[in-house]
Amino acid sequence: MRKITIVGCKLIAASVLCSTVIVTDASAQIYSRSIKGSYETHLDISYARIAGGDLRLDVYARTDSPGPHPTLIWFHAGGAMGQLTPTGKSSSTLQLLPYLEWGWNVVNVEWSLPVLTTAPLAAQNARCALRWVGTNAEKYGFDPSRVVLSGFSGGAWLALMTAMPPTPAPWESLCPGADTTKVAAVVSWSAPTDFTSVLQGPDAKAWAADWFYGLTNRAEMAALMSPVNAAAPSTPPVIIIHGDADPVVPFTQAKSLHDALKRLGVEAQLVAVAGEPHVLSRKAREQAFAAVAAFLAKLRLPTQ
Predict the structure, then answer these.
(1) Is 82 helix (H, G, I), strand (E, B) or coil?
(2) What is the pLDDT of residues 154-166, one digit of tens each?
């Protein structure tokens, strides 16, 4: 296990400037200005093993306060079988900064392995990560009653599916055990939520079929893997951010999930970002994140 201690970080332009490490990323259009707490970073921890390959995660754990601390679990973006995620969790590091600024602990999850991670297995991997957090809460100072799941695109879909009641049979074979964490909220960025509608028909997308590659029951599995169908009254509060000009995942996906959650009596908020595509502009993301902070604050989660 590698460890990096980060103390007194600031985001300057598109760089994270720290006393011990400098990270730069041209896509770092993020919203954080400074990190006042001290963090110990535990990199590449194995949380599950599939087909001879380790699935790994990184932990950013506060060291200046005993905790336990609210904890974000982040799922990186990507497509089926890992073909769209050459860098996986390492591409998401700067997405975590706002939560570190708030003093949260963060878990950055690598859920994909090349050529292996189709829809059912990807969802299993995500639930394994949630269970790992519950099992290791005391060790790293996670607060299992204040866990927020989030991600972008395919990662946001996994966050949604992980927060919803599991279908018994598919989930237990890879990481048996109980879910001991309480998901306090989900922050969904540009997620696919209804695979059935993008698998065929006028809104069909090529990427949707890839998630169910090689399955003989892909229509049945697409319905099972859709958050609009998996949602239940016990689903935790959800805030959905989606550009209404998204050509990759239609905005109707966000609207459908929001409507489904409202019908079930689940606390839900839809942030429709006018004129924005799949990847939001910097200004749009900053404005949307202000809505995220307000939503989480209403749930008594610290956002300052």
Answers:
(1) helix
(2) 999 999 999 998 7
